Amino acid sequence: MENYDLRAEAQVLLQGTAAKSKRSGNVPFPPEFVSAKAGQESPAPLARMIQGGQGGSVRLRLYMCITMMATSKPYDLKMPPTPRSWARLLALDPQRGPRSVSRNLKWLADSKFIKLEPRWGGPPAITLRSPAGDGRDYVRPIEQGRYIGVPVEFWTKGWVLELSPTAIALMIVLMDVLGGYSEPRYVPAEKRRLYGLSSDTWTKATKELRGHGLLSVGREPQGSFYDYERLRNLYWLTVDRLKEPPEVSPS
After folding, report:
1. Best CA proximity match to 38, nearest among 196, 202, 199, 234
2. Which residues contact 114 (CB under 8 A, 6 or more apart)?
3. What is the pLDDT of residues 42-58, one digit of tens each?
4. Residues pairing with 231 in the sheet
5. What is the rounded CA–CA span in Å between residue 130 and residue 67?
6. pLDDT at 160
7. At what angle do helices 165-178 and 54-69 cross, to 10 degrees?
8. Which of 34, 58, 109, 179 is 20 to 30 Å from 50 at the Cα level?
9. Using one digit for the tens of pLDDT, what is the confidence trace for 190-240?
């Protein structure tokens, strides 16, 4: 099956999955998933999740889909998809995809983002744990105050399949940066460090998001009138773009 056909099938499956989960509006993620705390040595959970090349791509998409699907206490999937079904949902290669899914579910469990419980006659049940990766029980971010809301169309319109893991990560980071603001924002160097995305990742992901019409970047002078004039980037996400499908070229 060609990549374009795999994606077309996956998008239909994602739409059905969201409908079955009765998911609408935004899927919430807590700030602690996106940003490390000041003085914390380990990278933020989101930055950790996208490390490892192709593995990072699969595990981030897996985790985001599990979060979208687990809508009520105890925030679990008692009868989750098989690795082969996950591979279809994520438009992965039919031969290598199931093995990649199994490896990355194990990574998520070993990293304490999920719990896997053996189930007779089927794949292990999946229970969400704290997005901080500290093994605590999952609590809906909405109940904890401020949260980052990713529109359900990110899944149902196929963006989860189209965007690279680094672009997905930067999109969520900028949703955190822009939360509560109505104008473009500058991201200070110290705040960037807490997000844990490298300069190269930031540059490539910015280009990708701009290419999809999701991000605009402006420039403004930095410093006072008497300082040497330097320009800094101001970022703005067009979140409503997620409500339309991405442009995908057949391959």
Report:
1. 196
2. 63, 66, 105, 108, 126, 127, 128, 129
3. 899 999 999 876 667 89
4. 221
5. 11
6. 98
7. 50
8. 179
9. 999 999 999 999 999 999 999 999 999 998 776 555 555 577 889 999 999
Within 10 Å of residue 223's Cβ, how many Cβ atoms? 10
Whether residue 118 is preceded by a cis peptide bond, meaning omega within 30 degrees of 0, is no
The Cα 29–Cα 33 span in angstroms is: 7
**Residue in the structure block whose two tokens are 């595990």:** 59
* C-alpha distances out from residue 18 to 69, 158, 241, Å: 7, 12, 19
The full DSSP string for 185-216 is: B---HHHHHHHT--HHHHHHHHHHHHHTTSEE
| ∠ Cα 168 192 39 (to 5°) | 120
Strand partners, 215: 237
pLDDT tens by residue, 110-122: 999 999 999 988 9
Q: What is the pLDDT of residues 120-149, one digit of tens each?
A: 889 999 999 999 999 999 999 988 888 999
What the block records as the tokens of 120 is 């007779």
Whether this prediction's pTM lies above 0.85 is answered by: yes
